[in-house]
Amino acid sequence: MPEVEKNDFSVGSVKKSIVKLAIPLTLAQLINVLYNVVDRIYIGHLAENATDALSGVGLALPIITLITGFANLFGMGGASLASIARGAHEKEKAESIMGTSFTMLLLTGAALTALLEIFHEPLLYLVGASEATIGYAKDYLVIYLAGTLFQMLSLGMNSFINSQGFAKTGMMTVLIGAGLNIALDPVMIFTLNLGVKGAAIATIISQTVSATWSVGFLFSKKAILRLTLKNMRVNFGHLKKIVALGLSAFVMNMSTGVVQVVNNITLGAYGGDVYIGVMTIVNSLREVVYTPLQGLAGGAQPVVGYNYGARRYDRVRESVFFMTAVSLAFTMAVWAVILIIPESIIRLFTSDPELIEAGVPAMHIYFFGLFLAALQFSGQYTFVAVGRSREAIFFSTLRKFIIVVPLALTLPLIESIGVKGVFLAEPISSFVASTACYVTMYFKVLRPMKRLSLGAKPDKSAASDENERVSEE
Prior knowledge:
The protein has 473 residues and is mainly α. Helix content is 81%, strand content 0%. Helix 10 crosses helix 14 (372-385).
């Protein structure tokens, strides 16, 4: 079998292809989340000033989200574009796309490291640091930023490993680094008595190992699409399309970062550092809950993209509907758990009675209607997989920038709502934006594809969509 035909997603069971990719990818991303979540769990149980330390580390989250956003800009954007090219049997083009993404990750990572190290202190005050938390935030972030380049390479290039169908290898990229981080955390934080500095040191060591593993695999003969010095030259034609596709993931991360900043500032003003600590716990749980959704959608994305490139529209529709059904079932189950045992979940992060008392109602409010996240992820990832960057960017912007931010700023002004308004903004945005995203995706992508897959003459909308896809290629 020719090399280009390995992991051909246009044949065999769609569901099996997605599950085969999604299981190791989900496990990998769950482990990846533990990079930061385990840090917060250990820090939340420090012997002294645990609440201030937890809040301080939470203040670093928007900046970490910024770094992740740039990794996804070139990683997810490039991997999606490469999947479409591979589905069309254009291997050299796909490798050139990957090489362009790799070089941009290197350049952007170096630039971010320099800029963030210089301006980290004013940035931390900007995102809501107080005199009680700034020291912990600086101790963690200054060290963490030293690993920016490795974090970006690990996250960004792992997208290319997964998009080629090597989900187990992608899982190992994360497993090696996260396992090392989990092992090093207690040693650095407690045994060596380094506190939050120890958590950051453990993280950057782990990220360096992960990046080395992922890049090493893509240079090896085991990869279908290989990194070479020749294809590392930036192709500006590819770069434009990579950015266009990756911009939705970037906007998603940036909007999450902006929301984190707005939440921290508003919570600090209306509830104090305790509520910033509560939001740190809520954000940590959200990362864990959303990870299986990202894993499933990430497993479906190369299958959707490959079949879209191969014009197998019936398989595209089947992939999207399967992703949606599984996501809905998962989010309904998790929502039930959060409603039943919120206090037990919070105690994983802290034993502070004030944090627990404030955290239980906040968690109930924030995660109300969690099942709608399934629609957001399914719609968003489908838009990216088929190259519809404009819709993907719009719905990324709608949910966070247009809905959450204004609500988080205005709802606390209502006396009867107060600080709870910050947490209430999330479910309101889910009901509006997630529903709109999925409905739009159905009518703009799936419905026209049904006519095309049946061999019927496409209507005007379907023809327009098909012409747009061809012109983009």
